[in-house]
Structures are given as C-alpha cells and as structure tokens.
Amino acid sequence: MFWQQLINGITLGSTYALIALGYTMVYGIIQLINFAHGEIYMIGAFVGVVAVTVFQLNIFIALFVAMTVCIIIGVSVERIAYKPLRRSTRLAPLISAIGVSIFLQTLMTLIAGPQAVGFPQVINDQLYHIGSVTVSKVQVIILILASALMVGLQLIIKYLRIGKAMRAASEDYDTASLMGINVNRVISFTFALGSALAAAGGVMVGMYFNSIHPLMGVMAGTKAFCAAVLGGIGSIPGAMLGGLFLGVAEVGGVALGYGGYRDAIAFTLLILVLLFKPTGLLGRPIQRKV
Amino acid sequence: MNKKLSALITMLVFSLVILAGCGSSGSSDDTIKIGFLGAKTGGHASYGLETLKGMKMAEEDINAAGGLLGKNVAIVETDHGSKNSEASTVTDKLINNDKVVAIVGDPTTGLTKIAAPIAQDNQVVLLSAGAVGTGVVEIGDYIFRDTLLDALAAPAVTKYCAEELDWKKVALITSVNNDYSVSLSNIFRDALKKYNVEIVTEQQVKDGDTNFSAQVTNLTDQEFDGIVFTGYYTEGGLLMKEVRKQGLKQVMVGGDGLLSPVLWEMGEAAVESSMVYTGFAPDPNTDNEKTKAFIDKYKANNGNKLPDMFSAQGYDAVMLIAEAI
C-alpha cells in the first residue's frame, strides 16, 4: 500500500518536475516567471492527441511532434510577448505573460471546445506486479521518459557550449553579453528547452490520466511553479526535487484519507518549507542575487 | 436664484428621464423574457446545453401557437462557464439588465443554491430544471424545480442494489467541492444503512480532478461489491478508468449527475454496466402524445439523437412557466 502510493506520487511528481524545469530555467536567466508555461504544457497535450487520433502516429512520434510544435510556440511567445519588454520594469513582462496565458487558454477553448477531451488508450494497460506493488506500463514509461529527459537536460547544460552559455547568462546576464555570448540566442534556446519538456509532460499526463482540457494548464502550471519555488527557483535539480516532493505530498494526503484536502496539504508543506528555508530546498543563498 | 432654478430644472429633467426609463423597460416590450441560467462551457456544459435545447424547443412551440398573452416568448441565454463564482453575476444580470420574468436554471444543485437567494430577494421566479439535491425549494417561495429528487431516487436504487444484486459492502466516493455530490452522499449513507449495506471505505475527490490513482489505490485493499460515486460524469468516467487500470472489477452506481454521453466517451469500456437513475428516459413507444411529439421534434432537430433528462426538464420548465403566466 505504502509503496504503491509512493509510486503514484512519483509518477505525478515527475510530470510536475518536467513543467517546473521550464519555470526555473527561464527565471534563472531573465528573472521572469513565465506564466504562459502551463499553457504550453496544455498545447503539448492537445497536439499529442491530434497526432495520435487524427494522424494515427505512434505515441513516441506523437511525443516528438508535440515537443517540436511547442518549441515553435514557446520561442514565438518569447519573441512576441517578452523580448520587446526586456528592458522595461520587471512587472511588464509578467503581466504580458499572464496575458499570453489567458489568450492561449481561450484560443484552445475556441478550437477544441470547453469539454474535457479523452486521450485515446495508446499503450495497452499491462500491469506488472512486484511484490505487493502493481505498476502499469504507462507509469513505467512515464518514469523512464521523464528521467531520460531530465538527465539529457543536465548533460546539455553541463557539457554543450550552449549549456555553458546558459549558465553564464544566469550568473550575470550583462557580463555574459559583454563576453561575446549571444544572449538572445541563449534565451530562445532556454524557452525551446523548457517548452519541449512541458510538451512532453502534457502528452504523458494525457496518456496517464486519459483526459485533457483547455484549462488543464492552470492548475498544473501553478503546482509546477510551486514545485520550482519549493526546490529553489533558478536551480535545475531543485525543480526536479520540488516536483517529486509536491507529487508525493499530494498523493500522501489522499492516502491518509483526506482526498478533499490534498491541495491544501501539499501547499501547507510548501509554506512550511519556505518558512524554514526561504530560498527553497536547493536554492542559492539570497545574497548572491543582490 | 438663476442657479437654483436651473438646478431644479435639471433635477426635474433627470427624474423624468428615470421615470420614463422605468416605464419603457416594463410594459412596452412585446416579448416575455425568460432567462436561462446555466453552463454552455466548462465542466457541466453538457447539462446546460441540453437544458437550453429543451427550452428553445418550448419557446418555438409557444410562439408557433400564438405566444403568451399576445406576446412572444424569448429565451435570454447566459453562460456562467460552470463556475460558482460567476453564477451570482449572471443571475444578477438576468434580473436587473435583461428584466426577465422568470429564470430557468441552474441544472445543478450547487449553482441553484447560489442563484436562488438572489432571485428570491428580487422576487423573480426561479425554476431549476435539475436541482435534485436537498434544501433547494426551502430557500424561498419564489424558488421551484421540476425534477426527480435524489431523496426519492437514491433509496430506490439502494434497495435495488441490496435486494436484487445482493450487495453487502460498498465504497462511497464523494466529490467534496460539489454540493450535489455531498448531499447525494448523505442520502446514500442513510439509505445504505437502512438496507444494511456496509460502507467499507469513503474516498474524497474533487470536481476538475483528473488524477484518481491515490484514491483508487486506497480501494484496492478493501473488499466490496460496488462503488457508489455521487459526482458528475467527467470525473465518473475517469475514476472508473483508473479503477479498471488498477485491476478492480466492481461496477459503479450513481445519480443522474453521471447522466451524459461524456461518461461513455471518458470511461469507454470501464463504465460498462454502470448504473445511473434518471427522471426522464426517452421511450419512443410511449403512450403520452406530448412526450412523443417532444422526442420526435428533438430527434428531427438534433440529427436523430434522443433527448435526455435535461432537455426534457428544460422544455417542461418553460412550459410550466408559460402555463403559470
């Protein structure tokens, strides 16, 4: 029972982590909370459904298509809505982000209709029994894919030139640009990475919960944002840890029999962590940002 | 002196305008407006849209037969997007902007309970086509409903499960942010006790949830004959999918909140042999001429689909109000 719930929690948490990575990377570089990020995740899920049902694609190809489409959307959003505001007050791009978020929600409601859309069953529901624990094939796939994507991200950031540039830009944006780093390209690349991960998260959630909705990005986005803050916003391992923590906490609340309060439990934990560690679990000390 | 005089004249002119305004909005219109309060979008749009279809048919029928008191009936449509927070604004708009004589809606208990006190205070008739829960008409003497009450239907279903299907133990699942579900669960709890069916576990979900894995895992180590789920269709379908995914074989029983084609779309094979009760089921061989005419007309307008309880209740609601006028 305990292990079963833990697996439920980790599966949920790894989807939060994928979205949280997008928030944290963007924040790390341009100190912007990209509130439209949850909508990128939602669009990813819808593109996944269209790819699977209309074009009859294999789920893994569908995943790739969704990630590509979302990279294009994510980067265009940055170009259109954030870039012109980069040198203005911190609040301006934030408001612009909220605007983009509402625009994308409404657009998708108009295209797809307000009802929840069922995600077709793309992977047969094979169950694996390990001791007293039952794991479904979908869960296994989500766990493997999410881990692979996160490891891949770490490799990109650690070893590729563009990854180094990202780290430099997040240390100090202006100095990085003085050193000859093309920060515009770095920012575009960051949005591309974040959007791809969010799209993957969207398709996986659709696959796992069998239902997607034009407003699904709102709650998922809020939770992933909290996960990013919990782990320490700006920190990539922090976002992963924060996502897992939040997922397990949420499922833990239901396991104890308080299904109605599960969000309350998860967010109370968030407040507690932040009270004792204001920069989040793996956040950098505040002084360095000043 | 001059100033005072002009001020007086201005005041007089203003009050005349206001008075004239009152006059024109009340009687010189040649339509009788009936408001539709419900969801065209959002989580329970299926109820709202069906209710509205029924109301539109009633509007056509009445106007084709010469209208009411020599005036045409017009339905004023609104949409609160299935949001509790919008229900009062929409009700207020219907009463104060559109000046409707009566409101039909909301099809759900929860939103009716939000709208009803506003209608009562403004002395506008509110007839809910679908509020099946408890404590609705008790709100005031302007509040009515035309539907099958949970308090009658749920015990009957429980009796069937206990006596015909021989259920001894059930799992009860409630959607805690849904007034309808909470009140239906209370009714089921009493009824189950009465027929000696034990509730082995109670789980809580929320409207809008898509992840039920943890609640269903809580069910897996219990023994029970059936699942009583008191929420709506979207969550019902997804819940049953998760139940099957985790290898449980029990069927689901629930109220008319589960009644929508969306239940099948969401749940697919997982909702097979689920049981739902309803206040109206289309019977093409019915003896009742009016019902037959209603079914035929609905089918003609909606690509041969059969009407459901909500369209029937919406139609009846407008007809009832017309009768009263």
TrEMBL record, chain A:
- Give the family per the record: Belongs to the binding-protein-dependent transport system permease family. LivHM subfamily.
One MF annotation (Gene Ontology) recorded for this entry: L-phenylalanine transmembrane transporter activity
Topology in membrane = Multi-pass membrane protein
Lineage, broadest ranks: Bacteria, Bacillati, Bacillota, Clostridia, Eubacteriales
Per the record, GO CC terms? plasma membrane
UniProt-annotated location(s) = Cell membrane
Q: Give the residue spans that cross the bilayer.
A: 6-26, 61-82, 94-118, 138-157, 186-209, 264-283
Its recorded name reads High-affinity branched-chain amino acid transport system permease protein LivH
Any idea which UniProt keywords this protein has? Amino-acid transport, Cell inner membrane, Cell membrane, Membrane, Transmembrane, Transmembrane helix, Transport
Cross-referenced Pfam families, in alphabetical order? BPD_transp_2
What Gene Ontology terms for biological process does this UniProt record contain?
D-alanine transmembrane transport; L-alanine transport; L-isoleucine import across plasma membrane
Q: Which CDD domains match?
A: TM_PBP1_LivH_like
Native organism is Sporotomaculum syntrophicum
Q: Does the keyword Transit peptide apply?
A: no
Automatic annotation (TrEMBL), chain B:
Does the keyword section mention Signal? yes
Which Pfam families does the annotation name? Answer: Peripla_BP_6
Q: Which domain of life is it from?
A: Bacteria
Residue ranges crossing the lipid bilayer per the database entry: none
User: Which N-terminal residues, if any, form the signal peptide?
Assistant: 1-20
Identify the residues that the record assigns to the Leucine-binding protein domain, covering every copy. Answer: 31-325
Q: Which InterPro entries match?
A: BCAA_transport (IPR051010), Leu-bd (IPR028081), Leu_Ile_Val-bd (IPR000709), Peripla_BP_I (IPR028082)
Instruction: Please list the coiled coil stretches.
Output: none
Enumerate the UniProt keywords alphabetically: Amino-acid transport, Signal, Transport
Q: Does the keyword Transport apply?
A: yes
What's an example GO BP annotation here?
A: amino acid transport
Q: Which family does the similarity line name?
A: Belongs to the leucine-binding protein family.
Q: What is this protein called?
A: Leucine-specific-binding protein
Originating gene: livK
